[in-house]
Amino acid sequence: MTRRLLAVLAAGALAAAPATAHAQLRTSFSLAGGLAAPVGDLSDRVDAGYNLAGAVNLAAPLMPIGIRLELGYNGFNGRTSPIAYTDHRIVSGTVNATLALGVTGASPYLIGGVGAYNRRYVAAAGTSSDRTAGGFNAGGGLRFPLGTVSTFIEARYHQMLGNTIDETNYQFIPITVGVNF
Q1: Which residues span the domain enclosing 73?
Q2: Which of 58, 129, 141, 157 lies at a C-alpha separation of 20 to 30 Å from 181?
């Protein structure tokens, strides 16, 4: 009888564990957009552009650390002087850790992570160049709660880890404004 009772209790605990873990994990979504500033080699080819991003945020209640899975699109206008360059776009998929530095009201946070970056442009002759490289990002932001949603402003440095020959050593800084819901 004791073994049956223990078996039933163990089965109940195992069945309840995923539901308890799921209930403790907060999931939110983010949409953001703003300015994308080219840095380094990229700034020699393009002018400032725009940034669009969407993300899934995962966090545990009362924990300052979270995870953000993010897709980003950065479009840059090609420079015409001294050499004509075409418009560039960089699509990124990143996994980031976030660290909240405050708990109430407007609260600052740090963010950083790694991911894959794909850059593409069409050359003057009509041929396209498309390359993918790994990379990292780091930055910070400020959250502003507004009822059931919160807004944020954020700046991050992104670095593609490539080389000059493949033109995959690009750096840029998106400055975005977004909403979490």
Answers
A1: 26-180
A2: 157
